[in-house]
């Protein structure tokens, strides 16, 4: 009936069906939570990097929009981690 379940829940239809429904709702919830977690992580990384220059995250995003920098939070956070020198050069060019 259902692969991956243990004991009688893999052989009995009603039990297997209930477990399948429960697993689907849990996976939906977990996918949403993962997106929220990564968004918070990116915001924290950007905020900590911009605090070196005395700005907070919201002011930094406002300056980015005014300067027409169209990088999303994920890309900005990756720039901070992997290309921090380039990020701070961009930061100084456009914002300061």
CATH architecture: Orthogonal Bundle
> Would you tell me the overall average pLDDT?
82
Give the N-to-C terminal Cα separation: 63 Å
Strand content: under 5%
What order do the helices and strands follow?
HHHH
Name of the CATH first level: Mainly Alpha
**CATH topology descriptor:** c-terminal domain of poly(a) binding protein
What would you say about this model in short?
The protein is built from 4 helices and no strands. By secondary structure, it is an all-alpha fold.
What is the element layout, followed by pairings?
Elements: H1 13-50, H2 57-66, H3 73-82, H4 84-95
Report on the structure:
The protein has helices at residues 13-50, 57-66, 73-82, 84-95. The protein has a single domain (7-95), classed as Ribosomal protein L20, C-terminal domain (c-terminal domain of poly(a) binding protein, Orthogonal Bundle), CATH 1.10.1900. Helix content is 73%, strand content 0%. With 96 residues, it is mainly α. The mean pLDDT is 82. Helix 1 (13-50) packs across helix 3 (73-82) and helix 3 crosses helix 4 (84-95).
Main attributes of the structure:
96 residues, mainly alpha, c-terminal domain of poly(a) binding protein, rod-shaped
């Amino acid at each position: 009936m259902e692969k991956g379940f243990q004991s009688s829940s893999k052989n009995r239809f009603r039990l297997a069906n209930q477990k399948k429904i429960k697993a689907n709702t849990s996976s939906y919830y977990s996918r949403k939570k993962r997106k929220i977690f990564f968004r918070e992580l990116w915001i924290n990384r950007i905020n900590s990097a911009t605090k070196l220059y005395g700005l907070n995250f919201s002011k930094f995003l406002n300056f980015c929009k005014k300067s027409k920098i169209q990088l999303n939070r994920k890309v900005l956070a990756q720039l901070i981690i992997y290309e921090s020198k380039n990020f701070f050069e961009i930061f100084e060019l456009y914002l300061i």
